[in-house]
Design brief:
Blueprint (H helix, E strand, L loop, with lengths): L5 E6 L4 E8 L3 E9 L1 H5 L6 H23 L8 E7 L3 H18 L3 E5 H12 L7 E6 L4 E6 L5 E6 L5 H11 L6 H9 L24 H16 L6 H27 L3 E5 L6 H14 L2 E3 L10 H15 L15
Parallel strand pairs: 1-4, 4-5, 6-9, 9-10
Antiparallel strand pairs: 1-2, 2-3, 6-7, 7-8
Helix pairs in contact: 2-3, 4-10, 5-6, 5-7, 5-8, 6-8, 8-9
Length: about 325
Amino acid sequence: MKERFLTLAIESSCDETAAAVLDGGRQVLSNVISSQIPIHEAYGGVVPEIASRHHLKNINPVVDKALKDAGVGWKDIDLIGVTNGPGLIGALVIGVAAAKGYSLATGIPLVGVNHMYGHVCSNLITYPHLEPPFLCLVVSGGHTNIVEMESYTKCKVLGGTRDDAVGEAYDKVARVIDLGYPGGPKIDKLAKEGNPEAIHFKRVYLEKDSFDFSFSGIKTGVLNYVNSEKQGGRAINTADVAAGFQEAVVEVLVAKSVEAAKALGEKRLVVAGGVAANSRLREALTRECEKEGIKLYLPEIGLCTDNAAMIGSAAYYKYIEEGPDDLLIDAYADLPF
């Protein structure tokens, strides 16, 4: 491997068109994100067809800007990495097609990246000396998992959600109390104004020793509470609802993560995914990990949500361990760990 190894990464799994250039797997030279949040806010969530059209419009300018910001050209790039799942299939196809076109035109090797591995690798950028194996809590709009990272590209899934992912539950509850999209940041902000003990929502821990999650019940609990209060003609304190919901969710996430670490004798816990930006989760995990003597790794806030830098890190390590993919790689809406 030469001293300077540059990866161009592309991410388009949902509503962010992103491109980044990394030197090796950890040094970010550029990280460009074109967000569609203002576009989808009017619809209360991501509209796949609209997302795809905007990816198609933005992909080339975003890649050009990433190269320019990094001060490099195509002749300097050694690897192209692209998210090929999981995500919205129409959105993924745009990124994969662009990456394949760039690879074919330049002869630069190509690697397809699992989006969730990308989230895990955001911590490799934040913490230059972090190496597997380690335990990881993955919390996002589509995933809630506890995984044991055995290497940079392989993991053992210890538990997952049986229904709603935690980020999905946040979005649904935000709609119930008329906060709009995106639900996670809005509930987190509003919860700071509420009393987390004013309204109790049931915590679901499932069977003893299970590392699985279930969040559909708490979503239903919030809906039932809101409907009951409306029917009774009582005013609803949405800040208290947000705080009570968030406290219930965070308690379960923290308890299961710490329990898994103790069961495995693991002294390092890594957190990844968009919900890793949640202030209450970060605060509660920090407190509990300090109490249990577990070293906690939290990614920078800017690397929690979808970005291409994390995809570049994952692509680099996949290339090192497994080599390049061919131009027949496809996009997959459902791509498990």
